[in-house]
Design goal:
The complex is a heterodimer of chains A (281) and B (514). With 281 residues, chain A is of the alpha/beta class. Chain A has helices at residues 9-13, 16-28, 44-49, 52-66, 77-85, 87-93, 97-107, 113-120, 140-145, 151-157, 180-183, 185-202, 212-224, 234-239, 262-271; strands at residues 2-5, 32-34, 72-74, 110-112, 133-136, 163-165, 206-209, 230-233. Chain A is built from 15 helices and eight strands. In chain A, the strands form two sheets. Chain A has a four-stranded parallel β-sheet with strand order 2-1-3-4, with helices on both faces. In chain A, helix 13 (212-224) links the parallel strand 7 (206-209) and strand 8. The model of chain A is unreliable at 246-252 and 255-281 (pLDDT under 50). Chain B has 514 residues and is of the alpha/beta class. Chain B is 47% helix and 10% strand. In chain B, the strands form three sheets. Chain B has a six-stranded parallel β-sheet, sandwiched between helices. A four-stranded mixed β-sheet of chain B has the order 8-5-6-9. A two-stranded antiparallel sheet of chain B has the order 11-12. Chain B starts with 22 loop residues before the first helix and ends with a helix. The chains are: A alpha/beta (281), B alpha/beta (514).
Chain lengths: 281, 514
């Protein structure tokens, strides 16, 4: 299947490893990945902050960019949730019924990563190897907007070498909520504190999720505490194999080997698609 | 949206739909209140678990929710007809119906009715509508004492406090605090009172019994008003409601117009949904229903006050109007991660939590409760818990848009946020501009060079970095990496066939540890 990757603006700019891992994984499973280079952002931040007229050009741009593709995947439950639940509503609310219908047609073939793997491609063992203790935060929009259910966990349970530790109160929000984290920073932080307590209680080396935004939030808190617990996107675990380690997982804190040149690292990972069996520590 | 203008917002200066400060400001104090955080965290966790257990017993729970939603939607579509039917039936059975446009109207009507009896005290059944309009204060101003008889409402009233939850209004209090309030405020209380729940309840019971037997006027709200027969219903747990509804000579019921249901058959659905969602019980202990006046049995005078107070205005928004479907069960606040941490007072209105965040701004007009639609991370737990499937997250987003539109229409100079949003929209609707902006974020690499993390940024991003680090921007965006990416050759067999992989140490280790 030829799959168009919607990388999401956040992963594109701040978490490119997540995109590399998604490409690596899908290609390893024998699929062709296309990256429509005209893509930008789904517009969720605008919609959720109340700026629907400003979201309209982003919705239109998304529709025009992805309309030619038969399957679209994003490594984000939240952005797929926006495509599926908001794009039609925004277009219709701004009086563009035709765009709304086009957006809704595209939404039907836009999938979050675990949905694509389990529902469309029919795999739950992707042949991954990740020898670490990991706990999984299911993220609100994957859980309650997309209803991905246990699909991510089914994928993770097949990862060899990994110890998957159940996260207490996993279905509780981490407190991110987009601009909520800024407008209600204190309440957001109070929610984050409980999420971090639950993560740390598991003793896991890393907390994983299917959304870079939630991981940025949880990871930002864990980093501030110098907890030593890392964040890693679901795609990065699933892309990992027992082939020699190439890059380390995404983390709130950038760490690099002493005296290494970041540009060299980037070039190296460009030559060799990421295999991320490395230690998260 | 049509241009038809049907209703007016609830008036300012009366009732309890507006707070003194914005949600973030009020939350600031609440979050620092250790006692409140502990009491709420414990209480909501207990109710959540109880609800989950009794909901899981119902194989047809989702069908019940769908039925509840459909019944409410159908009822609201013909609200005027159902209300007129209710009025006819109540009147035909000896009751009197009064129409109150707003809180001032309703307070004046009830005050006049009490004064006509010559009494100067009333007993009250727990009622959100009378809290909403500030009836107790209005009665007090007229020299009439209102006694709350629900245990939790009594605690709130004796503590000169405000309710912080629609079902358990004293949820922010623990038993030690309740004991102190009783010792300080309850006339004739045993000075040896302990904080044992049974002793506290007995103290309240002794105090209230004297009041029940003395009072000549009862005031209630209503959970349902059945249009078909003119019957009003109150569901409760303590029996205080039954006392107030049967012992006094005069009964005055204040009911929001959205509480009407067309027929008794509708109660089949709602009386299953409500107790399981609210108290986590299969059935509530007391369900009282009364129809007009029955000679020689119960109150001999019955008045029904139908309250609008912003409800008709709320009906004007075709998405937002669903907030009126609320049956006041409080399941949404019990599952809300924001409510659990801030408590109800932070919302400023008697309707707190997720439903309050969509109901209060619509009753008052968004500008009077502008911070409430933003008091949510849009996690969606409320929608899942709602027994009548009110899509609260979508209404929150809708109200945010209404607020932004109102600000846009009334302010000449756009807010810094509006400027930023417009700039982001312009940037992100062009891949060229977006790529350039991404490159610009790489300037952020000057930060956090030593630690590998960004720990402090100027406002408004300081709201983030006050408690959370940010990662340094990477040396290369994904789209830059893609340019040099050489795709693996597509094949239709997985590079690694799972079946072929031998079970290894790691597998058994994982199974053993789980």
């Amino acid at each position: 299947v030829r799959i168009a990757l919607f990388i999401t603006c956040l992963a594109d700019a701040l978490y490119p490893d997540v995109g590399r891992a998604t490409v690596t994984l899908l290609e390893r499973l024998g699929h062709e990945v296309a990256f429509p280079t005209g893509q930008t952002c789904c517009g969720q931040m605008h919609v959720n902050t109340g700026y629907q007229p400003e979201a309209l050009p982003l919705v239109r741009h998304f529709v025009e960019t992805f309309e030619p593709y038969e399957a679209i995947v994003a490594p984000s439950g939240s952005c797929v949730g926006s495509v599926r639940h908001q794009h039609g509503m925004v277009a219709r609310g701004q009086g563009d019924e035709k765009l709304a219908q086009r957006a809704e047609a595209i939404a039907e073939r836009t999938y979050e990563l675990s949905e694509l793997l389990v529902d469309v491609l029919g795999v739950d063992d992707v042949g991954a190897y990740y020898p670490h203790r990991v706990t999984y935060h299911p993220t609100c929009h994957s859980l309650r907007l997309l209803r991905v259910g246990d699909k991510p966990l089914r994928l993770l349970r097949h990862v060899r070498g990994m110890t998957l530790i159940e996260l207490p109160d996993a279905d509780q929000c981490c407190g991110f909520g987009g601009t909520f984290a800024l407008k209600n920073a204190e309440t957001s932080t109070a929610m984050l504190a409980d999420k971090m307590r639950n993560v740390l209680d598991t003793g896991a080396e890393a907390v994983s999720a299917g959304d870079s935004s939630c991981l940025m939030h949880i990871g930002g808190g864990l980093s501030r505490l110098r907890s030593g617990t890392q964040t890693i996107h679901l795609a990065e675990i699933l892309a990992s194999t027992d082939a020699p380690a190439r890059t380390a997982p995404a983390r709130a804190t950038e760490s690099r080997p002493a005296a290494s040149n970041p540009d060299e690292q980037a070039t190296a990972s460009r030559r060799t698609p990421a295999t991320t069996g490395g230690t998260p520590a | 949206m049509t241009a038809t203008f049907l209703g007016v917002p609830a008036p300012r200066g009366v009732g309890h739909l507006r707070g003194d400060e914005s949600f973030p400001a009020a939350a600031h104090g609440a979050l620092a209140n250790t006692q409140l955080r502990r009491n709420l965290g414990h209480a909501t966790a207990v109710i959540r678990a109880k609800r989950a257990a009794v909901v899981a017993e119902c194989a047809d729970w989702e069908e019940l929710r769908l039925a509840g939603e459909a019944l409410k939607r159908a009822t609201m579509a013909r609200l005027d007809e159902h209300l007129e039917r209710l009025e006819r039936e109540v009147t035909a059975r000896g009751g009197t119906v009064h129409w109150a446009r707003d809180a001032n109207d309703a307070n004046a009507i009830v005050t006049r009715l009490v004064q006509a009896t010559g009494e100067n005290e009333v007993v009250k059944v727990k009622s959100m509508a009378t809290q909403e309009i500030g009836l107790n204060e209005a009665l007090e101003a007229a020299g009439i004492t209102a006694y709350e008889t629900d245990l939790a409402e009594l605690i709130v009233q004796l503590g000169h406090d405000k309710p912080s939850h629609i079902l358990v209004p004293a949820i922010h209090r623990n038993r030690a605090e309740i004991r102190e309030i009783f010792l300080r405020e309850m006339p004739g209380v045993d000075p040896e009172l302990t904080a044992e729940p049974r002793r506290l309840a007995m103290a309240a019971r002794a105090y209230l019994r004297r009041t029940f037997l003395r009072a000549k006027v009862g005031i209630s709200g209503a959970n349902f008003g059945v249009a078909d027969t003119g019957t009003l219903l109150v569901v409760e747990s303590e029996g205080n409601g039954r006392m107030c509804l049967t012992l006094p000579e005069t009964l005055i019921t204040v009911m929001g117009i959205e509480k009407v249901v067309p027929t008794w058959q509708d109660l089949e659905v709602f009386l299953q949904l409500l107790p399981r969602s609210s108290t986590g019980e299969r059935m509530n202990p007391y369900t009282s229903a009364w129809t007009g006046v029955t000679p020689g049995d119960g109150p001999q005078a019955f008045h029904l006050v139908l309250l609008d107070n912003g409800r008709t205005a709320t009906l004007g928004d075709e998405l937002g109007r669903d907030a009126l479907h609320c049956i006041k069960c409080s399941a949404c606040m019990n599952v809300c991660p924001v409510y659990e941490r801030t408590g109800g007072h932070a919302y400023g209105s008697v309707y707190p939590g997720p439903i309050g965040a969509v109901l209060s701004p619509q009753l008052t007009g968004v500008e009077d409760n502008a911070s409430l639609p933003y008091a949510s991370s849009l996690c969606g737990a409320c929608f899942d818990a709602c027994p009548v499937r009110i899509d609260i997250p979508s209404i929150l987003v809708r109200l945010r848009a209404r607020h932004v539109e109102e600000v846009r229409a009334t302010h000449r100079i756009p807010s810094p946020e509006a400027v930023a949003m417009a700039a982001a929209s312009w940037t992100m609707s062009s891949p060229r501009r977006f790529a350039a902006a991404e490159k610009a974020t790489r300037l952020g690499r000057v930060l956090g060079r030593k630690s590998g993390r960004i720990g402090a940024l100027p406002p408004p991003l300081s709201a983030w970095t006050g408690s959370r680090d940010l990662p340094r921007p990477p040396t290369e965006t994904f789209r830059e990496w893609w340019v040099g990416h050489v795709p693996a050759k597509p094949s239709h067999t997985a590079a690694r066939s799972p079946e072929a992989s031998e079970p290894d140490v790691a597998d058994s280790e994982r199974d053993g540890k789980r």
